[in-house]
Amino acid sequence: MTRPKTRNLAGLHRQRNREIARIPGWVDVIRGSLVRYLLTCGKTGCRCHRDPRLRHGPYWYITVSYEGGKQMRYLLAAGEVADVRKGISAYRKLWRALCRISELNIAILKAGRGGEAKGHGRRP
Ligand SMILES: [Zn+2]
């Protein structure tokens, strides 16, 4: 995360407004990771046992981590993969935008105080 370069209050406000205007829609956001896997089946004579490249699939699922280290996985239908990929991408964009807006808000806070950002010697 890069910190805002300007200390100009009006410039920071403009930057923040631009950032807010660019926030992607969050209707479809998905927090998780998309995982692709290939399967070796139960039939011992099957081609998938001869060569790992001939395994069945690909199949897809998303994994989602929760507090306490718990992780859930959800199997996906082939037709759902593209939407899940978009949702994960939207989540990342949204998260990065929130981080940038937060940095701008801190810079705005500091610029509004006359820019005492160094933290040494001066009191608010
Ligand atoms: Zn097989």
Structure write-up:
There is one protein chain. This protein has a three-stranded antiparallel beta sheet, covered by helices on one side. With 124 residues, it is an alpha+beta fold. The model has no long low-confidence stretch (mean pLDDT 89). The protein has helices at 9-21, 47-50, 81-112; strands spanning 33-39, 56-65, 71-76. It contains three helices and three strands. It is elongated. It has one domain (9-112). The two termini are 26 Å apart. Helices cover 40% and strands 19% of the residues. The longest helix has 32 residues, at 81-112. Helix 1 (9-21) packs antiparallel against helix 3. Zinc ion binds next to loops.
List keywords for this structure.
single chain; about 120 residues; alpha+beta; three-stranded antiparallel sheet; 3 strands; about 40% helix; elongated; binds zinc ion
- Rg calculated over all Cα atoms: 23 Å
Could you give a short account of the major beta sheet? 3 strands, antiparallel
Strand order of the largest sheet: 1-2-3
What's the number of extended β-strand segments? 3
List the helices and strands and how they pair.
Blueprint: H1 9-21, E1 33-39, H2 47-50, E2 56-65, E3 71-76, H3 81-112
Antiparallel strand pairs: 1-2, 2-3
Bound molecules: zinc ion (ZN).
Short synopsis of the structure:
This protein is α+β, with helices and mostly antiparallel strands and 124 residues long. It has one domain (9-112).
